[in-house]
From TrEMBL:
GO terms for molecular function: ATPase-coupled transmembrane transporter activity. InterPro entries: ABC_SsuA_sub-bd. It is found in: Periplasm. It comes from the Bacteria. Residues 1-23 form the signal peptide. This is ABC transporter, substrate-binding protein, aliphatic sulfonates family.
Amino acid sequence: MKKWISILITVIFVFSSTMLVFAAPAPEETTKVRIGTQPWIGYGPWWIAKDQGLFEKYGLEAELVDFIEDKEVNAAFASGDMNAANIATHTALKLFSVGLDLKLVLVEDISTSADAILVSNEISSIADLKGKSVAYEEGTTSDLLLNYALTQSGLSLSDISPVPMPASDAGTTLLSGDVQAAVTYEPYISEILKNNDSIKILYKAEERPGLISDVFVVSAKWAQGNEETVRKLLQVWDEALQYYQENPEDARKIIADAVGSAPEDLVTAFDGVQFFDVNENQKALSGDFLTTIQDVAMVSQSIGLFETIPDFSNLIDASYVD
């Protein structure tokens, strides 16, 4: 009798344990998202988020896909291979103007001194660039900055000898003496200045605040079924930016590692970038940045990104930062 009671107790225990296993709540499903990026410190908070596990905190499995040239990340996003992308403001305008269904949901940063025109010491003004060879990447922030600087001095591209090439190569080409000027951005600026004291900065992006800026865009079609994911991504950005502000030394090391430079070589680069959190975006996306977009559009039109300036009223979606 005792033997049968023992067997019965065992069966009940096993059955109860099995039911508990089946009754246990299933783990929350992870949402996958692919984000296009480049080795630019303005996108640094995403690498901080990756390092600090912030994507996982919000149930996201984020793949940060790095590209070297603007055209590469633009093509990947336009093809639908990326759900979201970090791109320059003028690039967002260009993609929107050709009919790409995207939404600008976050202003990430503006460059003050992290984008610049570098020259050899004998050149002292933008006017001195007349007739000179200038290396820059067409259709990028470098193109935008160069054209704006030339226009402010009464010049145009026809007054110089353009030498198109990736921004990553422009500075080294200047070092070799093959051109007299180069337009590029950090970390390339710091690397060039560190290696040759005969090179100097002639013109910085701070001459027109906001002209060189970066935004976070998402596929409108993808966002329609992933509104909560977009909001979570902005929360991740906000927390990563908070970490940057509270732990600047460690945060800058994370970003420097991601872009392939030493933190001590990027001090001026970090100082030349202003980040925007979600609260600041609430004001920017409904006010100040709208004016900036119009200025960027005018310069973009002058460099041939589009013939007529389109209506950008449907480009920005501020609902995710409200």
